[in-house]
């Protein structure tokens, strides 16, 4: 068994503290001096880049192109869609002036009162309004549709209670915004993109998700329907990991975006928007990591294999490197990222602990005895298991091992979710499972916002989604006793 990182609080003792410590000790991110904001450090950003690159490829394979829209949104734009402005009003940062000047008393700078903006600008919390104001100039006829745009950007939502990656005032994300000639086409797009997120979550993040619809109360502000993927973290709490919205014609109406159809009639455009954010970093950490540090799925690990020489002299180091470098070259030729750490400022034991903490999927170690025997020590991070292998065939073995680790990580998370998904038929049982077991709960709900609000108020549990593939057998609501069309998915959530 590998050496335990003493400084990391065990998950069983304080999960929240474990998470915060791990984010900082694994060099993923740190709190900024700017309240509520974070600094994503190089190693954390390298993981985000892998996510970004994978998703970007998947978006382009589904016909989307990247664009960029302004950071600032005129206040009047946000006022045009009533539900939208109501949903975001409390989180908006507002720019009121455009100039500073030196304070006459020499104490620094002050806002120049003469530089007040005629119209305040909102720092984008999301971009529907500025984009649909833009699309109005792009769309005249059915030949201009569909528009399939995505942007990679930062957004600001003035959060009061923040946590690194999970909830910060500024965060990174992508937001897709598409325009269509028909309702059917727009809904197909919204469903297609939630499918892309599901594939990414499961095949790359190793994180099983449940796809479903948000309740009316939990929908995106201004949406007709919101699709979501919900994941279960190791502490039994849910995390919304991606959303895709069918916006109907709400934004087209608000910004008067019409087109001439094939018959020559004027029609309102149909819309979608969809996005995932750096919150996925939090999901990745909490889905798989352990008390020794990060556990990264190979498909997203910046370093998939690390090589650590163990040597007593410079001559021995040169011999070991001469053996390892051809293996490194062969692995790289297979598209596997490999780091050969021959630095002499840290001992091998320190390096082992550090790469465990950072979740590198496979560690290779070679000392003098391995050199003599033509062997190498292999450690897989997901199981913390060490084994010795002959150098012959090692490249193929590692290549297969990485895929096995990827599958094992997913299966472990899936097993956890299955063990922590409970079907309940009474409110007492619902509350007991929430408090004693946690996880997902499948229960009947009468479909009313009043019941949903009451359950949330009394238990802090929310309807995570109405599962797309869930149990549609009618029953009785656990709270009101009224008829229920089907079971929905409840959980306490981040």
Tell me what you see in this structure.
The protein is of the alpha+beta class. It folds into 3 domains: 15-70 and 126-288, Bira Bifunctional Protein, Domain 2 (BirA Bifunctional Protein, domain 2, 2-Layer Sandwich), CATH 3.30.930.10; 305-416, Rossmann fold (3-Layer(aba) Sandwich), CATH 3.40.50; 421-491, C-terminal domain of ProRS (Translation Initiation Factor IF3, 2-Layer Sandwich), CATH 3.30.110.30. Helices cover 35% and strands 28% of the residues. The chain contains 14 helices and 27 strands. The strands form 7 sheets. It has an 11-stranded mixed β-sheet, sandwiched between helices. It has a 5-stranded mixed β-sheet with strand order 18-17-19-20-21, sandwiched between helices. A hairpin with a 6-residue loop joins strand 1 and strand 2. Helix 2 (42-61) crosses helix 6 (183-203). The longest helix has 26 residues, at 394-419.
Can you tag this structure with a few keywords?
single chain; BirA Bifunctional Protein, domain 2; 27 strands; 494 residues; 35% helix; Translation Initiation Factor IF3; 5-stranded mixed sheet; globular; 3 domains; 11-stranded mixed sheet
Structural class: alpha+beta
CATH superfamily of the largest domain: Bira Bifunctional Protein, Domain 2
Shape: globular
Describe the oligomeric state of these chains in a short phrase.
single chain
CATH class of the largest domain: Alpha Beta
Proper CATH architecture of the largest domain = 2-Layer Sandwich
Mean pLDDT: 96
| Largest sheet, strands/sense/barrel | 11 strands, mixed
The fraction of residues in strands falls at 25-35%
Low-confidence stretches: none
> Do you know the CATH topology of the largest domain?
BirA Bifunctional Protein, domain 2
